[in-house]
Amino acid sequence: MALKITHECINCDVCEPVCPNHAIYQGVEIYEIDPQLCTECVGHFDRPQCRAVCPVDCIPLDPDHVETHEQLMAKYQRLTSGLKK
C-alpha cells in the first residue's frame, strides 16, 4: 500500500526531505503523499522513513491504494530506472 498523511499532521517538515522517491509534498493544508511515487521505501530502506521520523504518528497505510510487496518493488524499479508507467 502507499502511505497517506492524515489531518493530525502538524506540518513539522521532517517527512518530506527523508522520502527517497520525492512522493511527499506540501499540500494546501498539510503535507500529502503521491501514491504513484510512494513505495513505502521498499527498495531503499527496511521501513518507511517518513513514519520513522514523524513525531505525531500521522502516516498510516492508505486503504485506497493497496499494493503487495512485489508491486511496491516493481514500482521502485520503474521509478529508479527512469521509466514512466
Description:
GO terms for molecular function: 4 iron, 4 sulfur cluster binding; metal ion binding. Residues 1-29, 31-64 form the 4Fe-4S ferredoxin-type domain. By secondary structure, this protein is α+β, with helices and mostly antiparallel strands. It has one domain (16-81): Alpha-Beta Plaits. Helix content is 21%, strand content 7%. The chain contains 2 helices and 2 strands, in the order E-E-H-H. It has helices spanning 49-53, 69-81, and strands at 24-26, 31-33. It has a two-stranded antiparallel ribbon. It is globular. The mean pLDDT is 94.
What's the CATH architecture name?
2-Layer Sandwich
Main β sheet profile: 2 strands, antiparallel
Q: Summarize the amount of helix as a percent range.
A: 10-25%
CATH class descriptor: Alpha Beta
Termini Cα gap: 17 Å
Average pLDDT confidence is: 94
Draw up the topology in text.
Layout: E1 24-26, E2 31-33, H1 49-53, H2 69-81
Antiparallel strand pairs: 1-2
Defining traits:
alpha+beta; two-stranded antiparallel ribbon; 85 residues; single chain; 2 strands; Alpha-Beta Plaits; 2 helices
Task: Summarize the model shown.
This protein is α+β, with helices and mostly antiparallel strands. Helices cover 21% and strands 7% of the residues.
